[in-house]
Amino acid sequence: MKQLRERLYAYGSETLLTEELLAIILRGSPREHVLELASRLLVKYGGLGGLLHTDCRELSQEHGLGDARIALIKAALEMGKRLHTLPAGDKYQITAPADVARLVMPDMAHLDHEQLRVIVLDTKNRVVSNMPLYRGTVNSSVLRAAEIFRPAITRNCPGIIVCHNHPTGLPEPSHEDVEVTNQLVAAGKVLDIELVDHLIIGHQQFVSLKERLRW
Fold it and tell me: Helix, strand, coil % (nearest 5) of the chain?
């Protein structure tokens, strides 16, 4: 552990592996070497994103993890997530699909269920609101255009971006994704609110349907 801290001080935190950074947070473990514990947790829970979204009660069943260590892990991961989220009072501007992905991936990339979010934009493509609307399979039988566009209507905003995730981690659009997008594009034209994009979020990957379909 001392060697890891010395490397961090000497060469910077970016030179350490993920399991080494987690080992520093965990410090020592009475049951096993702390680096082995860190590696085991990352493998079992699918990386840092998995640890972030795993319930504390489930983590408490792991050998070598007490309440204090679980709190440290959760606090560190939450701070990392907040580095990528919108600071209070600021307006995040969207200039490309990658800007959208940076905004929503910390919350959506590692969910074990589908979620749909609507991002409401002002006239300069700055984020006015970023809210989850649906949990579960996103399809045309569930979605109602009125609910999707309502946040923009109530805020008198001219555009929205829709995002949903694929829990498999693969963001390739399905036939249903394309169908839903075409319906929303048409509804937006009627309402005079632009569907700026529809992003599908995977594990550190995303697809812009605007770029694919070019409406």
Answer: 50, 15, 35
User: What contacts 162, CB < 8 A, 6 or more positions away?
Assistant: 116, 117, 118, 119, 148, 181, 184, 195, 197, 198, 199
Instruction: Decide which of 30, 57, 82 is a domain's last residue.
Output: 82
208: β partners: 199
Hey, which residues does 116 pair with through a beta bridge? 134, 164
Which domain range does residue 54 map to?
A: 2-82
CB 205 within 8 A of CB 108: no
Helix, strand, or coil (residue 129): strand
CB 62, CB 38: distance < 8 Å:
no
**Region of 32 on the Ramachandran plot (φ > 0 left; ψ -120 to 50 alpha; else beta):** beta
The Cα angle at residue 34 between residues 30 and 37, in degrees rounded to 5:
95
Amino acid of residue 83: L
pTM of the model: 0.62
Contacts of 145 (CB under 8 A, 6+ apart): 183, 184, 187, 191
With a CB cutoff of 8 Å and minimum separation 6, the contacts of 168 are: 202
pLDDT in tens, 189-206: 999 999 999 999 999 899
Q: Do 196 and 143 belong together in one domain?
A: yes
User: Quick one: average pLDDT of 41-59?
Assistant: 88
| Inside any domain, residue 58 | yes
Look at the chain and report how many structural domains it folds into: 2
90 located within any domain: no
